[in-house]
Amino acid sequence: MRRWHSLLEIIQFPLKMLFVAIILTGLGTLITNQSLSVFWSVNDRNILLLADLFKRTGSFIIINFPFFVMIKFLATKSNSSVPIMIGITGYVLVLVITMLFQPSGLPTSASSAILGLSYSSSLFDRTRYPLQTGFFACAAVVLASRIAYSKSRTKSIYGFFSFVDRDTWGLILTLVLCLITGFALVWIWPIVLSLLNTIFEFIATDITNPMNLFVYGVMDRILADLNLGALMRNLFWFGEQGGTWINNLGVNYTGDVGIWTAQMNSLITPSGVGRLITPYYVLNLFAVPGMLIGFYTMFTDKMEKRRIRLFFLVAILVSLVTGTLLPLELYLLILTPLLFVFHLVVTGALFGIFQSMSVTLGFSYAGNTVTAMPGTLFDFMLYVRNPNMQRTIQMIFLVGVILFILYLAFTRFYFKYLALDLFNTGASKRRVEGFILAVGGLENIKMMHSSPTRLTIQVVDSSLINFSQIQRLGASRVVESRAGYSVNFGAGSTIIKNEINKRIKEMKRSA
Known about the structure:
Order of helices and strands: HHHHHHHHEEHHHHHHHHEEHEEH
Helix content: 55-70%
Largest sheet: 4 strands, antiparallel
Number of helices: 18
Strand content: 5-15%
Strand order of the largest sheet: 3-4-6-5
Number of strands: 6
Structural class: mainly alpha
C-alpha cells in the first residue's frame, strides 16, 4: 500500500499540469464558443489568437498527458537525465512501429497523430497515425527503460564492446526492448480493440435502454482515465452508434452530439438526443463541488485550511466552468480507489436514471472528443433560457442537489470510517498502535492534525521518534516542517488521527 500511495507523489505534478491545461483549454473555448454569443461576442483578432493559443497549448497537454506522466516516472529515483532521454527515444520508436505496422482495417478512431507523428505513402490507402494506446504504451516504455538503464549500470568496462559507454549501452538496450514492445502492441492491440468493440456493439444495440446507458457511462469514464476516451466517443458522439437524424433537406446527421448540434443550429428543440451528455451537468455542477468540499472539510488544521482554501475555490469554479473530472478521477484512483468505484457506479447510474426519466440535455460541439468539455455552467445557463427545456432543467437541478449532498456525505464518511481496514481485519488497530510506539507513546504526542493524505504531528521529544518504523507501517514519506512532522499515510490518515486522539482523551480522563 505504501508503494501505491507513493504513486500519488510521482503523479502529483503531472496532475497539476493537467489541471492547468484544462483551465487553458476552457478559457480558450469560452472565448471562442459561438454557442455563447448570447452572453458575449469577441471579434478582436488578438484576443481570438490568444484564445487559440490557450486551446492549443491546453489540448496538447491533455491529449499527450500519458507522455508527461512517463517523463515524471523516468525522472524518479534518478539524478541523471539519461533515463528520460532514452525513454523518450524508446517511446517514439514504439509509436513509429505502431504507425507503420498496424493491421489494416482498424477503425480510424484507433489511431491519432500522437506527438504530431503521421505517415503518408502509396504503400497505404490512407495516412497512417500511431495507435492510441493511452497509458499502456507509456507504462511499457517506462518498464523497458528502467530495466535497460539498470542493466547498463552493471556493464563491465572490459569486454568485446568496451568502447560502448554505459549510457549508450542503456540506449541500445532500451531500443531493443521498445522494438519488442512496439511489435507486441501491434499484435495485442487489435485484440483489445475487438473486445472493446464487443462492448460498444452491446451498448449500440439499444441506446435507449437504461442498462446499456449504465454500461456506457462506466466505460466512458474508464476509457477517458486511460486516455482512450476517443475510441468510444467518436463512435457514439459523431457516429451511427449514437443515432441518426435526417433534416428536411435530406441531410443525414449521425451521433448523439452531432445530431444535437445540427438541431440546435437549425433552431430546432432537440428531441431524442443529448442522453450521452446529460449526466455531465450533474457531475460538473453539483457532484464534483460536493466531493471537493468534502475533501476540504477533512483538513483539521485551521492554518492549513486557510492556506488551501483558495485552491478549492478555484477547483470548484473550474469544475463549474470547464469540468475537472479527469484529474479528479485519476487522483481518486490512486488515493482512494473505493471512492473512485463509488463515483463510477454513480456516474453509470446517472446515465440510466436520466434515460428512464426521458431527461436529456446535450451540448453543441464539433471538435476533438478528448478535449471536449460537456456539461458546463455556461451551457446550462444557455439552455435555461429555452422554455421548451424547463422540465429537463428542473430535473437536472433536483438530481444535482441530491448528488451534491450524497458526494459530500460519502466523501466525509469514507475518510472517517472506510479508508483504512475496510474489512475489519485488525490492520487499522495494528497501524495505530504501531504508530503510537513509533512516535514515543501517547505521552510524547503534543498535537495532531490530519488531511486527506497525511498526518501532522508535534511531539515533546523528537529523539523518541522511530522514522524507519513509521515507514514500515505504510508511510510513503516523513517530512519535518514548522508545523511538525508531516507523515504521508494516504487516505487512512484521518482514521489514524481520530483513533489516537480518542486514546489520548481516554488517557487524560483516567489520569
